[in-house]
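Propose amino acids for all 65 sites.
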């Protein structure tokens, strides 16, 4: 059931075509990669990265006019 909700949220963001600025804080388990960094990208790519790296993130959605 949670996967279905995640998919709805993903599609909602993708349909809106928001530009994301998301700050990523790598989990302390990944000590070698532990750092903060920012990436600006399309919502679809952001979700892909979130799943790929399994990291803790804070999303801040910015609309660019």
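Proposal:
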């Amino acid at each position: 059931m949670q996967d279905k909700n995640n998919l709805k949220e993903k599609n909602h963001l993708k349909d809106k075509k928001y530009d994301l600025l998301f700050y990523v804080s790598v989990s302390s388990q990944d000590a070698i990669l532990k750092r903060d960094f920012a990436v600006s990208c399309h919502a679809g790519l952001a979700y892909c990265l979130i799943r790929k790296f399994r990291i803790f993130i804070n999303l801040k959605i910015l609309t660019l006019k």
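The CA atoms of residues 30 and 61 lie 26 Å apart. The helical segments are 2-16, 43-53.
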